[in-house]
């Protein structure tokens, strides 16, 4: 009977064979290396594991570095296109089929985004609270002998170039 040896070189194992070196991969560092342009093999060499292991781990997080770079470069246009796609799919029927909570949420989000786009307020502000806080600050400044209406001498001199 001849003794059979198992090749432990993970590069030569079938793709579905579990790689015992996978736990060696520091995912955070691997992502950083990949985004800096290192190849899967470069990263595998750093961690002492199979290139396939690095590829499998990173594909779950960053499917394609080139896609990420292209997306970052054209993010506004990509998001505008997706926004338009979603708006075009909002039909009366799809809205009617959605639960009431989803309809209300969608309305609120769309309302806020329109307000923001138009440069209008997207939140309620308690002006009375702000006014009261400002009055308290002004009173405290006056109690310390400062005149909150006039700039401090060092600010006046700085503004005059002196």
Overall spatial form: flat
Radius of gyration (CA) equals: 30 Å
Q: Total number of β-strand segments?
A: 0
Order of helices and strands: HHHHHHHHH
* Terminal residue distance: 98 Å
- Helical fraction: 55-70%
- The count of helical stretches stands at 9
Number of domains: 3
Unreliably modeled segments: 1-11, 17-22
Largest sheet: none
Strand content: under 5%
User: Averaged pLDDT, please?
Assistant: 80
Classify the secondary structure makeup into a structural class: mainly alpha
Can you characterise this structure?
- The chain is mainly α and 162 residues long.
- The chain folds into three domains: 10-70, no CATH class; 74-117, no CATH class; 127-159, no CATH class.
- The protein is 60% helix and 0% strand.
- It is built from nine helices and no strands.
- It has helices spanning 27-35, 40-47, 51-59, 65-73, 75-89, 92-97, 100-117, 127-143, 153-159.
- α2 crosses α3.
- The longest helix has 18 residues, at 100-117.
- It is flat.
- The termini are far apart.
- Mean pLDDT is 80; it is low at 1-11 and 17-22.
